[in-house]
Amino acid sequence: MKVGIDMGTTSAGAPAMLDLEELLATRLLVQGNSGSGKSHLLRRLIEQSAQWVQQAVIDPEGDFVTLADRFGHVVVDAARTEAELTRIAGRIRQHRVSVVLNLEGLDAEEQMRCAAAFLGGLFDADRDHWYPLLVIVDEAQLFAPAAAGEVSDEARKASLGAMTNLMCRGRKRGLAGVIATQRLAKLAKNVAAEASNFLMGRTFLDIDMARAADLLGMERRQAEMFRDLQRGHFVALGPALSRRPLPLRIGPVETSARSSSPKLMPLPDKPPEDARELIFTPGEDEPPRVVPRRPPPPVPTSDILRQVGRPRPVLIPLPAAPAEPPAPAMSTEEREAAIAAILREILDDPDASFRSVAVLYQDFLVRCRIRRVSGEALDLPAFRRRLAVARAGVDTRTAESSAWERAVAISASLSDDIQGVFLLVAQAAVAGAPCPSDAALARAYGSRSPGRARRLLTYFEERGLLVCRTDFRGNRVVAFPDLDCETAPGDPSAPDEAQPGTVADESPAAGA
């Protein structure tokens, strides 16, 4: 179905129509300096398309929350955990509810983390819920910066990865990105390059005018026109808008932002004596003034020398407290058995699969001290390897096989966070057990999304570590060429019936 969205009027006075169905397939980039009318343009697009398509607005300043009263958008307050935002995003796609993610009041790094978690939940939704969704991101340069800033690298990479997924891979999942930025130079190139439709507003810097002219296929001498554009005037180009650069003026909107451009206002007519009283007299609601304490005067040098010259008193040492008896030394077998028991206790917690490795490592160290496990404690990389083996549920017979030793050696070439998933599938192949389901693989990865587990299997297959095939009943079989074995057929959509944290008897060979 072809739906035309009225964005305003062209320079010739004709209606400026935007093909909504084409926009969902080709995405949109809006550029304009502060005050050029970008937010007004986005609001016009949202209002005109609200009845036709589901919408999700990433709002860093809280300007779009007014859409809730007129068009029924649900305002999602971002003062939540990242896990909550991810789950909320999944339910948004399932129930097809238009929302506004309000990031107002958060600092830059918190906004990037919340946006990354929310966009990740939209992107990782189940295939059955891949309905068309218009994702509008205002001030996109905050979430996909072209260069590192004052935020941590972890937050920047998470936010940039989520924006890249939205613009590069979101189309097949029904996600259509509409991003607005003040300057193209501030926006990551791999995010901006995926847009096929452009609306360029007023800009003044030479580099921004040149890039805007290049994107619109205009000559460099025509770039000066972007300085002369009025507020709310843009130049459009793209399959959803026009095949040639088309100047247009954005039409009016039905709602307004909570914040607006500053307007000149006359100063209050107060005599000087009243103004002084207003400034220096505390109000009724103000907290009482705290008078800072002055530091004590400096001690004269003569007094310091006199104190140094005084004889020191003789100190009588107190009797030493009885030393705590050292923990009895353990043999290698006893130490390995104690570590295996502690790992089993940790993984018996149903929520252990969804906690970070750093948190589990701290719990492990505390339990080792309580159990008085002698010897040097495992470092974090060694703990990751032991945890991955423990999550795979390897029994003693499988751990002593040469195929399992080769599987552990191969897993060393993978990153720590995905070794557990590889070893879980390898254990099933070595033991000839059915292939684990997507839910079991997701639990081993520490996620609740089966889609991530399927992508990990694809990643392993691309690296040549395994080969996946499907039998006539739709069951999955995974073969390992380097191990010369394969799993039995297993239903990929079966629920995870294994109790989280079930660990088989572990021997030293299993944790090698």
UniProtKB/TrEMBL annotation:
<keyword id="KW-0067">ATP-binding</keyword>
<dbReference type="InterPro" id="IPR027417">
    <property type="entry name" value="P-loop_NTPase"/>
</dbReference>
<keyword id="KW-0547">Nucleotide-binding</keyword>
<dbReference type="Pfam" id="PF01935">
    <property type="entry name" value="DUF87"/>
</dbReference>
<dbReference type="GO" id="GO:0005524">
    <property type="term" value="F:ATP binding"/>
</dbReference>
<protein>
    <submittedName>
        <fullName>ATP-binding protein</fullName>
    </submittedName>
</protein>
<feature type="domain" description="Helicase HerA central">
    <location>
        <begin position="10"/>
        <end position="110"/>
    </location>
</feature>
<dbReference type="InterPro" id="IPR014588">
    <property type="entry name" value="ATPase_Atu1862_pred"/>
</dbReference>
<feature type="region of interest" description="Disordered">
    <location>
        <begin position="484"/>
        <end position="512"/>
    </location>
</feature>
<feature type="compositionally biased region" description="Pro residues">
    <location>
        <begin position="289"/>
        <end position="300"/>
    </location>
</feature>
<dbReference type="InterPro" id="IPR002789">
    <property type="entry name" value="HerA_central"/>
</dbReference>
<feature type="region of interest" description="Disordered">
    <location>
        <begin position="252"/>
        <end position="305"/>
    </location>
</feature>
<dbReference type="InterPro" id="IPR008571">
    <property type="entry name" value="HerA-like"/>
</dbReference>
